[in-house]
Amino acid sequence: MAQEIFRLSRHHIQFPFCLMSVNVTRIAIQALREECLSRECNRQQKVIAVVNSFYAATFLRLAHVWRTQQKTISDSGFVLKDLEALAKKSPRRLLKTLESYLARASKGQASLLAQKYPGPQAPRASDLTFTGVCDLQPHSSEGAGLI
């Protein structure tokens, strides 16, 4: 799922991945603070796992809407507003959608994207290795003297 969302962010329709992930985090935290997730947390007797699943379910819904309704950056405010309303009103519905997606994915039948995008392919796991700032070494004359 994460690779498909990342692939969507690299498509020419300009899905603003970083901006959207910050907003989905905000939605998840607000839903927790406003006790929208309390029933599910109590049902599962877990908080962190529910919030993590809720985040993934919300991001899945966002990517699905963005892709199927061909949204652009100019639509992002409206999409986020609708997503936040749905997340607070029907968190269980979002979680059920995630469960269904993951069940299909385990059988190799799930695809977030209705069709493959032309352009950059999904990154391989080796492409997703992050380096800490302290590990960066300046190249020859580039960045010489910078800390």
Automatic annotation (TrEMBL):
UniProt xrefs under PROSITE patterns: ELMO
All copies of domain ELMO, residue ranges: 1-91
Top-level lineage group: Eukaryota
Pfam families assigned: ELMO_CED12
InterPro entries: ELMO_dom (IPR006816), ELMO_domain-containing (IPR050868)
PANTHER family the UniProt entry points to: ELMO DOMAIN-CONTAINING PROTEIN 3 (PTHR12771:SF2), ENGULFMENT AND CELL MOTILITY (PTHR12771)
Protein name according to UniProt: ELMO domain-containing protein
Species this chain originates from: Marmota marmota marmota
